[in-house]
Every structure is written in structure tokens, then in C-alpha cells.
Amino acid sequence: MINLLQEINKMQDILGSNQIVYIPSNWKIFYEYDENLQEMKGLCILYPYTRLPYKNEYTTGKIAEIGIFTFPKYRKQGVCSRLVKQAIQYALKNKIDIVADCTPEGYQTLLSLGFKESTEKRVWLNYSKVKLLKKEML
């Protein structure tokens, strides 16, 4: 039996990111698993949320951020492309718009599958990295 939490945390270790302790129930996870070698090939995760509908880019207000990852041994074999195609079918069926903050590798994969450059001007306040807020920022 596949332990998705364990597999996601293996991915997190490879990426040098923090591990998670549970998988939220709203995540939609697509994966490929090598039954013979009993190991994960890759993951595609949709992280859905709802926002107010906005012009042409968020017409239903149903959004999912997408994350993709192929384990090193299985790269350049089309794993992520197949998984993203499954996620796209799910999004089409459920009228969900998909957005991505891409790594350079993922950027090319998503462009090749029909994703378009956004016209949004995205900016960040990255408070997860802030250790102590200065008084003048409050």
C-alpha cells in the first residue's frame, strides 16, 4: 500500500523543504508508482481554493495551484506530463482554473501542456521567512 504522506515527505527532503504532518482533505493528488520496484515515480498535486471571480482569469472563482515533481530516477520519461494531463482533465470536469509558481524545469513542462504566461503582476509578502517584525512595518 502506498503511503502518500511518506512519499510527499521524500519529495520534500529532495527539495530541501520542510516535511508535512498530514495531507489536507481538499488536495487532489495524482501520482505514478513503479509497482515492480515499489517506488514513486512522480507527483502532481492540485491545491484548490476559492476566491472571488475576477475578469477573464478567474471566471468561476474556483482555483487550484499546481505542484509537480518527478523523482530523479524517473526524470525525462514523461511522468510529469502524464500526471499534469490527468490534473487538467480533473480541472476541466470541475471548472477549476489552474495556476502555478514554477521552477525552471516545471515551467517548460507546463508551457508544453498548454499553460499560458499570466498577465498578472504577482507580488509577495513572504512572512513565513520573517523571524521578527520590526515596529515600523506594523
Task: Explain what you see.
The protein is of the alpha+beta class. The chain has one domain: Gcn5-related N-acetyltransferase (GNAT) (Aminopeptidase, 3-Layer(aba) Sandwich). It has helices at about 5-15, 80-95, 105-110, and strands spanning about 30-35, 40-50, 60-70, 95-100. A four-stranded mixed sheet has the order 1-2-3-4, with helices on both faces. β1 and β2 form a beta hairpin. It is globular, with a radius of gyration of 17 Å. The mean pLDDT is about 90.
How are helices and strands ordered from N to C? HEEEHEH
In CATH's first tier, which class applies? Alpha Beta
Helical residue percent band: 25-40%
In CATH, the topology is named: Aminopeptidase
Q: Helices and strands in order, then pairings?
A:
Blueprint: H1 4-15, E1 28-34, E2 39-50, E3 62-70, H2 79-94, E4 97-99, H3 104-112
Parallel strand pairs: 3-4
Antiparallel strand pairs: 1-2, 2-3
Short recap of the structure:
This protein is an alpha+beta fold and 138 residues long. The protein has helices spanning 4-15, 79-94, 104-112, and strands at 28-34, 39-50, 62-70, 97-99. The protein has one domain: 3-Layer(aba) Sandwich (Aminopeptidase).
